[in-house]
Amino acid sequence: MRIDLHTHSRCSDGTDSPGVLVDHAAAAGIDVLALTDHDTFAGWDEARAEAERRRIGLVVGAEVSCRLAATSVHMLAYLPDPGEPELQAMLERVREGRNARVPLILERLRAVGVVLDVADVAAQSREATSLGRPHVADALVAAGHVANRREAFDRWLSEGKPAYITRYAPEPAEVVTLIIAAGGAPVLAHPRGRASRKVLSDDVIASLADAGLAGVEVDHHDHDDAVRRALRGLAGDLDLVVTGSSDHHGTGKDGHELGSCTTSEGEFLRLLDRARVNAERSGRVVPQPYLP
Ligand code: AMP
Ligand code: FE
Ligand code: FE
Ligand code: ZN
After folding, report:
1. How large is the average pLDDT for residues 65-81?
2. pTM of the model
């Protein structure tokens, strides 16, 4: 079984529509795919329809933006009730914060002589539910200022660079609680990636586990072998599910090909079990995984 539990479509900052993403996953020999767009559930229906057509497993979810000690942290939410009002309101607030900062980013770019319009960014966002830095990067590529997203981030958009503007994001512990109340399973995404490794110590992860964290993404492009070993040990100590995933963004991110990191079948079943328990306890009506 090849199980890839973290991918993005054009509903956030991936470059494929949800249907095409599922299609690519089927072609790549993936057995179970999770769609986890940033802060939105918008791609679920299209992905599900294509998964049924191609008879490939699908788990719906999202990757929720969090912030801890001024540092970006990402939380995967698997199979939550998309209609749960508090989770919905929080995601709405995150998306609004992302949209609201675009003019400020463009102001900063103008100050360094790079002139773009909000419409130029919107033109790159297709069906995305909010305008993020990747769409600003795509507009910079389209206007010929840089060759690709990475260069746009390295020169202007990353934290500490001239056009970086922060935005609203809730704390991870709060997000864990919201996901559980919505009947879903929260999994910490790439905790020892470039930014979040500074704030996600073993102790912090242990406290999230106490709050109900279900798992931790261990096998990820941003983690070297030593980091993966350490996280696997921690997950064992804290009884957390161990996941692995590509974090595929279509052509938007190099080195994140579908299936480039995967989750074992045993850990996947444990994750589904955590999700089922949370769904039962919450009393919410949650989406079911599609496993043909
Ligand atoms: P935002 O949510 O608008 O702050 O944008 C964050 C997104 O930008 C992340 O989810 C990544 O997919 C993408 N991103 C962050 N850093 C880079 C980078 N160096 N190169 C390409 N994409 C990046
Ligand atoms: Fe992204
Ligand atoms: Fe992420
Ligand atoms: Zn991601």
Report:
1. 98
2. 0.98
